[in-house]
Amino acid sequence: MIRIEDVTKRFPGGQEALRGLTLSVDRGEMVFITGHSGAGKSTLLRLIALIDRPTSGQVIVDGQNTARVSRRKIPAYRRQLGMVFQDHKLLYDRPVFDNVALPLIISGIGYRDAGRRVRAALDQVGLLNKEKRHPETLSAGEQQRVGIARAIVSRPKLLIADEPTGNLDPDLSLEVMRIFRRFNEVGVTLLIASHDLALIDQLGCRRIPLENGALQVEKDRDEVSDYFEGAGAHSPEDRWR
Ligand SMILES: Nc1ncnc2c1ncn2[C@@H]1O[C@H](COP(=O)(O)OP(=O)(O)O)[C@@H](O)[C@H]1O
Ligand SMILES: [Mg+2]
Hints:
By secondary structure, this protein is α/β, with parallel strands linked by helices. Helices cover 37% and strands 23% of the residues. It has helices at 41-48, 74-79, 96-106, 111-124, 140-152, 170-185, 197-203, 221-230, 236-240; strands at 2-10, 16-25, 30-34, 56-61, 64-65, 81-85, 158-162, 189-193, 206-211, 214-215. Bound molecules: adenosine-5'-diphosphate and magnesium ion.
């Protein structure tokens, strides 16, 4: 679903956010990008969402080379993916319904169809009875779920999320992850940037650790053991004897 090939992103000041990064995410996977603050997680997601372009290398999403998506075609490109942010960027002067309907209205879907889809999306995040509320009257967790409903209302095949639980306490974070997990179970591919390792371990999903804009090379003990077990050896210790 996503192929990142030897991608470098250098900012005008000379700052290199990504350095020769290569990775891929299969269709139907739920994967976490982890790494310290400044590791390049947001930059990677921004390249996938075509908010920004790489300095060199290829970003291929659902078979499309993003380098060939012209400015004019960016809105159509973005409609196939859902985006969730830590700061959910809701419109505070509009009710929940309008916030979730926004992507549909922009893409010109009729009001009746939009209503049906908005309610289906709100139902999936457990907010069906809150469509008339204004975001500021909702809790932080509910506001984030409105952001998720808006991201999935166009039924994207791919959902990318940048620190979606960054502002939430552990219980609410787990609830958001469970919602993501349910999307994943019905075939949505998810790529989520997070540094909440405890939460990720609880979910048991694949992790892609970034460090200074590249894949983290240093293997920790568990990964070394996994490798040897996978290769049929008894343990790293046996192997070294
Ligand atoms: N627009 C920008 N201009 C210059 N440097 C940037 C810009 N955006 C990000 N960076 C730098 O790129 C590196 C990676 O940033 P980012 O992708 O936001 O990391 P993360 O999301 O993992 O915290 C950081 O060193 C950051 O300061
Ligand atoms: Mg970030």
